[in-house]
Amino acid sequence: MHASTHKAMKNWVLGLTGGIGCGKSAVSAMFEKLAITVVDADIIARQVVKPHSPGLAAISEHFGAQVLNPDGSLNRAQLREIIFADTAQKTWLNNLLHPLIREKTLTDLHSANSAYVVLVAPLLFENGLEQYCDRTLVIDVPVEIQLKRTIARDNTSEQQARSIIAAQMSREDKRHRADDVIDNNCPLHLVEQDIMQLHQNYLQLTAKVN
């Protein structure tokens, strides 16, 4: 339990995470169907660099017009190329974006009006976001399933998919650190049953807090 670290948070927060290709989107959609607000760190990361945002203005000022598309949006491929080649530039970018992402995430978690709120973050533990959560849930599938789904979805090579998985926290570490674990390598209706059971548990936990 991590409740003591975020006294200012009015909402009870469930942190939802899992490796690439584990099915976080499908599971978060199940919570949305139960009228639970979902805050997605990946979506927020895109919002803080959208056209006309302070984040994008700072990036284009630092890196120049080469990181912008003709329509004024961020050229992610170009930016990725620059920061992969230069650790100092990657550090600069992280120092700019992480506080912006964190601030927007906390604002969205705080303003949610559902019984509790779900924070979806692939790097929940790696980036220390579990400090804002009352409970954490890991979506778990075998690595071979992760590979298959990632290659099919992102049209990427097996080598690239393996390197992405290798860069993330291991399944074992995630399972060990999480309060709850969902096995997503089974038929959808069974996953939905598990989510319903967890949902009832979370409602009881939030009732105690409130």
Automatic annotation (TrEMBL):
UniProt-listed InterPro entries: Depp_CoAkinase, P-loop_NTPase
Main location: cytoplasm
Catalytic reaction list: 3'-dephospho-CoA + ATP = ADP + CoA + H(+)
Key word Nuclease present: no
Keyword terms: ATP-binding, Coenzyme A biosynthesis, Cytoplasm, Kinase, Nucleotide-binding, Transferase
Record GO terms (molecular function): dephospho-CoA kinase activity
Claim: Ribonucleoprotein is one of the keywords in the record: no
Record-listed ATP binding positions: 21-26
Pathway given in the UniProt record: Cofactor biosynthesis; coenzyme A biosynthesis; CoA from (R)-pantothenate: step 5/5
EC number in record: 2.7.1.24
Cellular location(s): Cytoplasm
HAMAP family, per the entry: Dephospho_CoA_kinase
Family of this protein: Belongs to the CoaE family.
Entry function: Catalyzes the phosphorylation of the 3'-hydroxyl group of dephosphocoenzyme A to form coenzyme A.
Name of protein: Dephospho-CoA kinase
Gene: coaE
